[in-house]
Amino acid sequence: MFKGLCAFPLTPLTEGEIEEKSFISLIENLVAAGVDAIGALGSTGSYAYLTREQRYQATKLAVSTAANIPVITSIGHVRFEEVVRLAEDAQKAGVSGVLLAPLSYQPLSTDEVFRFYERISAELSVPLCIYDNPATTKFEFTDELLIALSALNQVGSIKLSEIPDNRELALQRIDNLKTRVAKGVTIGISGDAQSANGLMWGCDVWYSVIGGMFPHYSLALTQAALSQDERKTHKLNSDLNPLWAFYHRHGSLCVIATVAEIMGVVASPCLPFPLQTLTGEERASLVQTLKQLDFLL
Amino acid sequence: MFKGLCAFPLTPLTEGEIEEKSFISLIENLVAAGVDAIGALGSTGSYAYLTREQRYQATKLAVSTAANIPVITSIGHVRFEEVVRLAEDAQKAGVSGVLLAPLSYQPLSTDEVFRFYERISAELSVPLCIYDNPATTKFEFTDELLIALSALNQVGSIKLSEIPDNRELALQRIDNLKTRVAKGVTIGISGDAQSANGLMWGCDVWYSVIGGMFPHYSLALTQAALSQDERKTHKLNSDLNPLWAFYHRHGSLCVIATVAEIMGVVASPCLPFPLQTLTGEERASLVQTLKQLDFLL
């Protein structure tokens, strides 16, 4: 499950409520393409903006729509007692695994983060992916901490947020992790623009935002990279550079949500208030870019 | 209400539940000292870790214990629809004002933050304090944005998080804000170690963590600073330097919660999991420091 392409769909919202029909269509698109796993309610799925009831509702919909494809869902929350309840809900809804970022209001120490995962690990009967996401959590994992956490019972994967740009340094880091994490724990890459490199340099799974919208293309890119086809990987990835430039300016969620609105697969606006999709010139420019990227559609 | 000393008590928790008796005692201590306002459920009161029901429960307790002293409470939440409900709850509980930080999972733009306050301002019938807290929200307010927000109907105060160390620059910044914010909007200082200076340099109110535990001393410091008694202010503030050194190393919440545990006014541990109070040598050293600071007690 924590291998290949794990695609993260949006959770389209209208006035704070889930647009079920669009959400189901997004999942069906992933099922038809045959992604390796579906990451319902990742950061891209706006999990942090939903009530407990909505998270259960969306997870159930995802599982029932996903057929035989494993669904993983985020159980993150600032309040630990709520993380426990979300874990129960997710398992009841039939997920194959859960994602968990160390959300906090106050900054956390390494020791606090370790205890947090240790305690939730004891509550779980499905595998857990450690969700490194410093842009939203402010917590920076060290490799030593990730390696220590990998030994916890339920940990099945680690989603890295950043790898060095430099090939040698990235290879060194990934190799160090892969050698030292507990047996069977996979290393995942996120941050779409660096993910093709991450896969070529040894990561096992791409936790992918673009995969939630364009799964066929993302699968082709994943397969090229995992089979070390450098030329094909480079071509498929660099063709997306215009999109990565938008990511760089506005963040992946804002861009992919705008793309979904432009394509008409979700209602507009689709993000939780006060988050906004692109407007004005940047939106017009994204419309033009998408026309050039018609191979995605 | 948004003047003088606004004291922020802890919300002591045991296994995620509010210890009502200790919480009431903390509030009674503030009432006896005659603070200008009580900031129930600030960051120090762990608001972000509580359920909606617990926030209502704590706010009602604070209001009923506070007698004639105005109570303000935080209505912050990542989900906007929940902010609206928390505002309703707070007003129903009888608060005199609310605090609101721009909590978000995704980074917010200036425009998104403006719309956020604009929309909640329209829902409120009590004054709002804009809660600048970049250490927890990651959002950095510009002075231009604060000035624009001050014109919203319900805005009554701005809680600054950081002022320049340099006296001239700090005076310039505070003077610029005071001259340009809407009439009647007060400027507050937070960050205990810089607050005496902030008050001497023109701020109207101290949003105080130490004030929630040691209100008599904090009132004396507030009065000295507001009356521009530089010598007395310097003496009262520099006597606290050993405590500010702990703040600097561990953050104000961890330190003041450890102080409360050491004094026996709350059960131990009193913070929401996974946050920890000080242990080992640092705790022993804080015990010694408190003995030297016996004038606080």
Automatic annotation (TrEMBL), chains A, B:
Gene3D superfamilies listed in its UniProt record: Aldolase class I
Short name of one Pfam family: DHDPS
InterPro entries (UniProt xref): Aldolase_TIM, DapA-like
Record-annotated membrane-spanning stretches: none
Keywords: Lyase
Family to which the UniProt record says this protein belongs: Belongs to the DapA family.
Protein name: Dihydrodipicolinate synthase family protein
Upper lineage: Bacteria, Pseudomonadati, Pseudomonadota, Gammaproteobacteria, Enterobacterales
